[in-house]
Design goal:
25% of the residues lie in helices and 20% in strands. It is an alpha/beta fold and 547 residues long. Strands 1, 2, 11, 12, 13, 14 and 25 form a seven-stranded mixed sheet that branches. Strands 7, 17, 18, 19, 20, 23 and 24 form a seven-stranded antiparallel sheet that branches. Helix 1 runs parallel beside helix 6 and helix 1 runs parallel beside helix 12.
Length: 547
């Protein structure tokens, strides 16, 4: 029972997709997951999303080193330690990314990963419940993708304000036109979180060919020919793979496992007395994330979710969800969004908005002023790069993480632009009945220096780490995996998670991570889907106009 054709490390977004497709093709698979069950309302209730990512029961509890460009702030870096991985603790927002993101991947050496190549995988994985049929979307895949009811008038006000400010309204930002304001999509089905575990892992287990083993992997095992033959488990024990080992342990734990297994920078491994198996200096490098600000506003009318922000209100929301899967708890409350360009000369959106009808932090702390709402806004393509390094040669020790947030001068200018564009949008007539005043940054925060001080103190991670085992051509010294996900310098070892992203995509990362698992599974199986021939909408006057 400790042997299978394939061992997948990590029951998260990419790992569940890989296991499903390998089992579908008739192979036996062992999925190794350090965390426990995803059962229970904190995970399954969409409206409870702030709880699981703040609970050590479900989260690895990682945090950064003191970030040098944020005044030494230490930021949380949640990663799912539970069946479903981060798809069981995330905000459930579904964003494919922009077509140009994937074309850029291919330009950087990820051959076969252009948008035309990856679109068929997004379509294969989707079970889209949109307002109409679309050649851009899939409707019979395992992953349910839905839209919220938008019962709260603030969602409609946000989209209307964008239109009044001169931005387009997009009918489907995951379809032909990402740019614009519109309805946000989520991996929610019939009032419950539809994680990678529900979409992929449970059906895979039902085939009888997939077994989940709870345990933490200490390192990958190799034979004399440098072929991966299995994994060692922390605390003793081993699992053997007849064919391959596939790492899908997150962009934090995957590079850690590679380095503990002797694959990484020779100098760094020597610091910890680890024998070098393959000198790949790119392991743990190229760490990227999205940062965002919560721009908060006091409401003139009691139309926000603040009315539920008390014990009786939470009990009522919980009861509605528990007995009928209805009410505010059945939504993640991210039901409106926008993707816009920061200036003329940018050919596709580089700013993303989430709108939320309450003023609250991800840790669940509401502002003291009562009824309010907020936009989450941030640049999508920061030039800052960080790293993941070993703390020691002990598998039980958490890695060191430094994103080098805001280390590039452009980051500051881009965030100042985000704030100023947001103020213009929120000042439109659509918000006149609802917006009383700006809570933060506050009306007195206007100059570049004042905005930079606010950014330094208040910017937060959107929890989208990626890029630490970058995909590229085999002759690229900083590439870690080739375009088929194979670790360069080893045999029988692949990576199938957001670690392989050459550059962060435009939006939330759950959908691209699942797509990567789908596509890597096909590479393992020696097959591929035919390329698509659809072209995205690009603003015709992008070179001369910001909107």
């Amino acid at each position: 029972m400790s042997v299978a054709d394939y061992i997948v490390v990590g029951a998260g977004s990419g790992g569940c997709a890989v296991a499903y497709r390998l089992a579908e093709a008739g192979h036996s698979v062992i999925v190794v997951e350090a965390g426990g069950t995803d059962a229970g309302p904190f995970i399954q209730m969409p409206g409870a999303l702030s709880y699981p990512m703040n609970m050590r029961r479900y989260d690895w509890g990682f945090s950064t080193e003191p970030e040098p460009h944020l005044g030494g702030r230490v930021l949380a870096c949640p990663r799912g330690r539970v069946i479903g991985g981060s798809s069981s603790i995330n905000g459930m927002v579904y964003v494919r990314g922009h077509a140009r993101d994937y074309d850029h991947w291919a330009d950087q050496g990820a051959d076969g990963w252009r948008f035309a190549d990856v679109l068929p995988y997004f379509q294969r994985m989707e079970n889209w419940h949109g307002p109409a049929t679309s050649e851009w979307r899939g409707t019979d895949g395992p992953l349910h993708v839905t839209r919220g009811a938008q019962d709260n008038p603030l969602f409609r006000a946000f989209v209307a304000a964008g239109a009044q400010a001169g931005y387009p309204v997009t009918e489907d930002y995951n379809g032909a036109a990402q740019e614009g304001f519109g309805v946000m999509e989520a991996t929610i089905w019939r009032g419950q979180r539809w994680s990678a575990a529900r979409a992929y892992l449970r059906p895979a287990q039902a085939t009888g060919r997939v077994r989940v083993v709870r345990g933490e992997v200490a390192r990958v095992r190799f034979d004399a020919e440098n072929r991966a033959t299995g994994v060692e488990l922390l605390g003793g024990g081993a699992l053997d793979a007849r064919a391959e080992v596939i790492l899908a342990a997150s962009s934090i734990n995957t590079p850690k496992l590679l380095m503990l297994s002797g694959i990484g920078s020779g100098a760094h491994l020597a610091e910890h007395g680890i024998a070098l198996r393959a000198d790949r200096p790119g392991v743990g490098q190229n760490l990227q994330d999205h940062l965002e600000l919560y721009l908060q506003y006091a409401a003139r009318q009691p139309v926000t979710l603040y009315k539920y922000w008390n014990l009786p209100g939470k009990a009522w929301v919980g009861a509605q969800w528990l007995f009928a899967r209805r009410g505010p708890g059945a939504s993640n409350q991210f039901e409106a969004c926008a993707f816009i360009r920061s200036r003329a000369g940018i050919d596709y959106p580089d700013i993303q908005y989430h709108f939320l009808p309450i003023a609250v932090r991800y840790d669940g702390q509401a502002v003291a002023e009562g009824h309010g709402f907020q936009t989450h806004v941030g640049p999508m393509r920061s030039k800052s790069r960080g790293w993941v390094r070993l703390r020691s040669d002990r598998p039980e020790d958490a890695p060191r993480i430094c994103f080098n947030y805001m280390s590039h001068p452009d980051d500051w200018a881009e965030f100042r632009t985000c704030i100023r564009l947001t103020r213009e949008i929120m000042g439109q007539a659509a918000f006149e009945p609802y917006l009383d005043h700006e809570i933060q940054p506050g009306a007195g925060c206007e100059s570049d220096d004042a905005l930079d001080g606010f950014i330094r103190a208040h910017v937060e991670s959107a929890y989208h780490p990626c890029g630490t085992a970058r995909m590229g051509r085999a002759d690229d010294p900083m590439a870690v995996v080739d375009p088929q996900g194979r670790v360069i310098g080893a045999q029988g070892l692949r990576v199938a998670d957001s670690s392989i992203f050459p550059r962060i995509t435009n939006g939330n990362l759950n959908a691209p991570s699942i797509m990567a698992g789908e596509k890597i599974a096909d590479h393992v199986l020696g097959r591929s889907l035919p390329a698509a021939n659809l072209e995205p909408v690009i603003a015709p006057d992008w070179a001369e106009a910001q909107r």
